[in-house]
């Protein structure tokens, strides 16, 4: 009887933990947190000390726009940057994205560069995510740069337009990536630069160039953050486990990787809270 009682208690504990875990995972995947980073770089012009950027990436047409906007507003950003995959490759109704762009633009200036899903969604003459963003007065930077001015000082935001290739064929296109990065670097000159570059897994290539801050996504924070499972999924999905989520340094660049906001059709988010990045720039 004692054995049965112990087994019953163990089963009850296991069931309770399992139910709690499932409930937590569903609750956690629906919420959004702010992850704050401070970048200290002596190259930053004095007028930009304390300049705050809200970075949003990989929302994949997430529907709870009001929540995203409210949390972004709480950051009190001086600038909002969108890092690609704001829609899905099969998105045809842009209502969520248009609403998001319009409401974010009401907070401050917004700049946006394409990820792979924006490119995969383009088909002939159909409306594009860029059309929707521009209608909402969002600045689309696809292989372009923009000056952000404060007083007599300025910094540059550069947007890299992703290449229309999967991560498993991208190595054949490295020369294109490097050509595009070199042109962007020249366009930025010696100014302090924030680069929007969607695919974090190519930071080794990006770090060859003199971009001060790189803001990236694409990795979805590792999808399922359990030992071995996360790395297996990342290898199957993007072929890289080196740059997943958080802060990384290489060369003269600091890269911040957002875990993004959206879900994936194939992989749920497990112990991987959706996030918006708050990036504070300081020169000292």
Describe this protein's structure.
By secondary structure, the chain is α/β, with parallel strands linked by helices. It is built from eight helices and twelve strands. The strands form two sheets. A six-stranded mixed sheet has the order 1-12-2-3-4-5, with helices on one face. Strands 6-7-8-9-11-10 form a six-stranded mixed sheet. Helix 2 (65-75) packs parallel to helix 3 and helix 3 runs parallel beside helix 5 (129-135). The chain starts with a helix and ends with a strand. 40% of the residues are buried.
Give a quick set of tags describing it.
globular; 24% strand; alpha/beta; 6-stranded mixed sheet; 284 residues
Instruction: Classify the helix fraction into a percent range.
Output: 25-40%
Number of separate helices = 8
User: Which class of secondary structure composition applies to the elements?
Assistant: alpha/beta
Q: Biggest sheet, open or closed, and with what strands and sense? A: 6 strands, mixed
Number of strands: 12
In terms of DSSP E residues, the strand content is: 15-25%
Question: How far apart lie the N and C ends?
Answer: 69 Å
Q: What is the strand arrangement across the widest sheet? A: 1-12-2-3-4-5
Contiguous runs where pLDDT drops below 50 for at least 5 residues? none
Compute the gyration radius: what is it?
20 Å
Order of helices and strands: HEEHEHEHHEEEHEHEHEEE
Shape: globular
Q: How would you summarize the topology of this molecule?
A:
Elements lengths: L1 H29 L2 E8 L10 E6 L8 H11 L3 E4 L12 H11 L4 E3 L3 H5 L8 H7 L3 E2 L3 E7 L2 E7 L14 H15 L4 E7 L3 H4 L6 E5 L11 H9 L8 E5 L2 E5 L17 E8 L2
Parallel strand pairs: 1-12, 2-3, 3-4, 4-5, 7-8, 8-9, 9-11
Antiparallel strand pairs: 2-12, 6-7, 10-11
Helix pairs in contact: 2-3, 3-5
């Amino acid at each position: 009887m004692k054995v049965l009682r112990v087994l019953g208690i163990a089963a009850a504990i296991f069931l309770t933990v399992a139910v709690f875990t499932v409930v937590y995972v569903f609750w956690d995947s629906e919420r959004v947190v702010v992850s704050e980073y401070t970048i200290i770089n002596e190259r930053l012009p004095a007028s930009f000390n304390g300049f705050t950027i809200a970075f949003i990436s990989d929302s994949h047409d997430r529907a709870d726009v009001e929540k995203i906007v409210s949390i972004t507003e709480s950051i009190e950003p001086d600038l909002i940057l969108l890092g690609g995959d704001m829609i899905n490759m099969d998105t045809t109704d842009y209502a969520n994205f248009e609403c998001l762009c319009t409401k974010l633009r009401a907070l401050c200036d917004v700049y946006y560069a394409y990820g792979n899903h924006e490119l995969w969604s383009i088909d002939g003459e159909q409306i594009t995510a860029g059309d929707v963003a521009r209608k909402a007065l969002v600045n689309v930077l696809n292989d372009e740069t923009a000056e952000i001015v404060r007083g007599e000082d300025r910094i540059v935001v550069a947007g890299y337009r992703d290449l229309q290739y999967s991560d498993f064929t991208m190595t054949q296109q490295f020369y294109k990536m490097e050509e595009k990065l070199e042109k962007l670097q020249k366009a930025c000159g010696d100014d302090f630069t924030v680069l929007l570059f969607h695919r974090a897994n190519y930071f080794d290539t990006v770090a060859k160039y003199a971009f001060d801050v790189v803001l990236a996504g694409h990795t979805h924070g590792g999808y399922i953050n359990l030992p071995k499972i996360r790395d297996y999924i990342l290898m199957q999905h993007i072929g890289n486990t080196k740059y997943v989520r958080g802060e990384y340094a290489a060369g003269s660049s600091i890269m911040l990787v957002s875990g993004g906001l959206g879900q994936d059709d194939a992989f749920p988010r497990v112990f991987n809270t959706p996030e918006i990045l708050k990036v504070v720039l300081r020169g000292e």
